Automatic annotation (TrEMBL):
<protein>
    <recommendedName>
        <fullName>Indoleacetamide hydrolase</fullName>
    </recommendedName>
</protein>
<dbReference type="InterPro" id="IPR000120">
    <property type="entry name" value="Amidase"/>
</dbReference>
<comment type="function">
    <text>Hydrolyzes indole-3-acetamide (IAM) into indole-3-acetic acid (IAA).</text>
</comment>
<feature type="domain" description="Amidase">
    <location>
        <begin position="24"/>
        <end position="433"/>
    </location>
</feature>
<dbReference type="InterPro" id="IPR036928">
    <property type="entry name" value="AS_sf"/>
</dbReference>
<dbReference type="InterPro" id="IPR023631">
    <property type="entry name" value="Amidase_dom"/>
</dbReference>
<dbReference type="InterPro" id="IPR020556">
    <property type="entry name" value="Amidase_CS"/>
</dbReference>
<dbReference type="Pfam" id="PF01425">
    <property type="entry name" value="Amidase"/>
</dbReference>
<dbReference type="GO" id="GO:0003824">
    <property type="term" value="F:catalytic activity"/>
</dbReference>
Amino acid sequence: MSLADLSIAEAGEGLRARTFSSVELLSAHLERIAARDSALQAFVTLTEDRARAEAERADDELARGEDRGPLHGIPYALKDLIDTAGIRTTGGSKLHLERVPQRDADVAGSLADGGAVLLGKLMTYEFALVGPSTDLPFPAARNPFNRDHITGGSSSGSAAAVAGGLVRTAIGSDTGGSIRSPSAYSGCVGLKPGYERVPRRGVIPLSESLDCIGPLSASVKDAALTFDAIATPSDFDSAAAEIGRDIAGLRIGYARDWFIDDPALQPDMGVAMDAAASDLSILGARIEEIALPDYEAMEAAGAIILHAEALAYHLDDMRSRSADYGRQGFNSLAAGVAVTGDDVERAHRLGRKWRSEIDALFARYDAILTVTTLATAPAFSAFDGESPVWTPMRTLPFNLTGHPVLALPMGFANGLPMGLQLIGRHGGEARLCRIGAAYEAGTDHSAQKPVFAD
């Protein structure tokens, strides 16, 4: 087995026992990237020289007994919306091809402070909008389980890198599902933290009211360790400390009505969701079907806010540099022109109402279970590269309400991953990781990996 396949915890144990060095761990990841990334197209910028210097420093510090935490000496990568001092941050757009920030985003700074080793920057749909597109500077990332299919967006490179075994953990952003849908389509774990649990400063915004920053990782524990490293210090429990705890007696509300009668639902998905609810019950959780607020109304309200805020951020560049936007991205932004201030105010008001209604459910339940996407990842042939294609998801409402969500693999259909999501109360990321880790350990869905020639 390659060192690149070790979990974060396993790699950390090896580094501290001096079984291998951070430089050797990095080399294994670089070899894996060299072997696979030409097929996956996950990386936009590879920071090999910086990574070697950081790995050497990590080895020196650990040898001196200076331990910065669980990610000390561990390779990771960043979505190319996240600023990195001295390293270009393009946002996946021609507008920013030469943009080199002077300082790290807060999330990048937290990982650097924790001794993590930056491998590079990962593919994103242009400014986290829509895709895949054919008129952008970088080719779209490809699904490790079938390279003819997409990874989902907009954290497309993050999902491809993690699911493809290039790195154990990566950082993405989620405004309407951009951590969770790529995780579901690509068979990895995605954690969308609660709103403002992870600082957003230095991340190119899409919608300030909805944006969240979080990890896409190879396992729940990897995600929990990464979240603990990047979250704003608080009185909430450590997510990693909850891993391994029993879930017997925890109450989970199953929002089956949110998807089961939707004509867009792939039949395998409904069967897998019912099986997941059964698996959680076998593990000791108490499952009850519940009703959530109307999905379509919540999605529409969230879309209004997203379009209005995205347009406001990009309007000056759209006027002065319209030709530098990809066609899909520009048209998506232009849709915000039809949104009025009254529309936005009403959408926020409804969002607060739905947040209160879901909060009330958490007086009874420890988590809510529902599907992440209604179908597996579509093929690239379903897209023309210029016109957006709707892919049915169940994600945007929890950006609107601000609740944390953990996305998990729950099986395969026709060789492609399927995913569920667990929603928690505000500040409840640790409880979600506890439940998710128990489900992961009690099933074999996360153990199945894509096949590569190397």
